[in-house]
Amino acid sequence: MDQSEIQKKIQELQSLAEKNSVDIQSDLKRLQEKLNDGKMTPADLWKKIQLARNADRPTTLEIINHIAENFIELHGDRAFGDDQALIGGVGLLDGRPVTFLGHQKGRNMKENIRRNYGWAHPEGYRKALRLAKQAEKFGRPVITFIDTAGAYPGLASEDRGIGEAIAHNLRDFALLRVPVLAFIIGEGGSGGALGIAVANEVYMLENSFYSVISPEGCASILLRDPNKAAEAAVQLKLLPSDLMSFGIVDGVVPEPDGGAHADHALTAAHIKTQINESLKRLEQKTGEQLARERMTKFLSMGRFVEEGGPKPNFFQRLFSLNRRT
Amino acid sequence: MAFFSGVVDRLLGRQQPLPQDITFRDERSFVAQKHSCPSCHAHLEAGELENNLYVCPKCGHHYRINPAERIRTLVDPGSFQEFSQEIQSVNAIGFPGYEGKLSEAKAATGQGEAVTNGTATIDGRKVVLSIMNFKFMGGSMGSVAGEKLTRALLTGLEKQLPVVVFTTSGGMRMQEGIFSLMQMAKASAAIAQLELARIPFFAVLTDPTYGGVTASFAMLGDVIIAEPGASIGFAGPRVIESTIRQKLPEGFQKSEFQLEKGFVDTIVPRTALRKTLAFLIDTHPNR
User: How confident is the model at residue B14 (pLDDT cuts 50, 70, 90)?
Assistant: First the structure.
């Protein structure tokens, strides 16, 4: 049974039980456990990680080419150079101009050397912010595609301030007065992913993952054995179903049977459906509402306990204090 | 302003004065005894460091210090009032062994989390402080650290006070999975609020500051100060060496390197920090 079938089964059982007032708690619990990826074996979960990293999955540029009528790539951060691991540009989506941003992986060794396997340098994040501000100036929505193992952990990257570049994106994407949508299309690796993922709505493809650290990194640091990556992947709770249950992402975009690589056009069509649905909703809002809602979304994230509980209406009061918002 | 402070009390709970008997336990008890400086091996007498802001009087080596030591060496005596200490961590993603790690860290530091918040005065100027503690699970930032930092920033906004943050961290707290990653965006959104309200935010980067802390609030200060000789970066040296498969240059990622590359405004020795912060507060009035 796949997930949607299990979900359907649960719903059927619930409605049956309501009609006939029978106790189905034990059956329900069993099915819920099946649905819960926490019960997946490390080997099962690792297959999903490999699907997310499959080199034949549709890349950012391929998705853009499928869903946009026209697209022009815009290059460079205007300070250092052009990062081909993080691309951007303007496209037409059902006649409406939008700005696309995304990590770009290659399909073969030659392409991957040019694309640095989708590991972006600071100039990539600075280009992304430049194009996002350009989108804001012209009232275009920003749509980002995330597919990176992380920001590049190299000498040049540190020299040019990868931390500073990501930090500014986090702050300034929060302030954008246009709709921002983010799609995790493969690997959502740590700060390198988040650097273009501060969005009003965040979606994950069915076979993608989004994590604070790669399973391999977590295994070598916390489990002290890089070979335990599958085990670490289970512990990190990085699948779409986990992130949905945590309230961190807003939805899961279905993939064709076998995975996104099996049918690029169909995968892109599913993404386009979600973009149109989201933009229909977000385009009703003012720039101020969009920025506020985005900030409130991220300001609310985190799980902790507090004596006396949370204070009511925190954000309404906050925004009423900050008249310049 | 009375209106603001009333709102803040309701929003954040009443601020409690720091109890007189508050203790930040620290296994580095050697710094209080006679020992040799780890940097220049000079012989230091018992109590010599405590009387010199935990800076080696011979070579200027800056020892890592905990929030209690920072407070004692920086703010006007008796002016520190801690807030948001009641926020506690939970095992949000059910990570094996996390509760045990938390209790160990609490026992080792005598503190509830890796961030301590408070209001205080520095040479008579009121500020909001948020101070990280490397001894608490490597200063790793999870939901509680993110929330505390956010509240410190928003308290600055609501009380119209400058915010000074002292960073020291190995990065995000892996045991909290995706929740910890989101703290980077959360703190940055709070700074976006300060940006709009034109409230000054000063970041003081201390040894070591890495990972998601560098890639968020540490690099977003209106003025970014580094302590001398601090290691500051995104990826750690070992990770970089394994990526590029070569040795890193001498002094890589030190404060002086970051100053040369243009990522910190100034390097300020601990002995001059109080005066420098006072000057910056005076020259960055709220508008």
Answer: very low
Nearest-Cα distance to chain A for B212, in Å, is: 7
Cα separation, A213 vs A190, whole angstroms = 5
Q: What is the DSSP string of A55-72?
A: TTSPPHHHHHHHH-SEEE
Please, what are the domains in chain A? 57-299 (3.90.226.10)
Q: Which of A158, A298, A308 sits opposite B182 (nearest CB)?
A: A298
Indicate the residue of B179, B220, B240 with minimum beta-carbon distance to A167: B220
C-alpha distances (whole Å) from A181 to each of A66, A201, A279 are 17, 5, 8
- CATH 3.40.50.2300: does it fit domain B2-26+66-283? no
What is the maximum alpha-carbon separation in chain A? Answer: 69
* C-alpha span between B122 and B281 (Å, rounded): 9
- R_g of chain A computed on alpha carbons: 21
Q: Is A6 on the interface with B (CB under 8 A)?
A: no
User: What does the domain layout of chain B look like in residue ranges?
Assistant: 2-26+66-283, 27-63
Nearest to B181 among A153, A171, A190 (CB): A190
- What pLDDT is attached to residue B23? 44
* Residue A111 neighbours by CB under 8 Å, 6+ apart: none
Query: Could you read off the pLDDT of A224-277 as tens digits, one per residue?
Result: 888 999 999 999 999 999 999 999 999 999 999 999 999 999 999 999 999 999
Contact A303 B174 (CB under 8 A): no
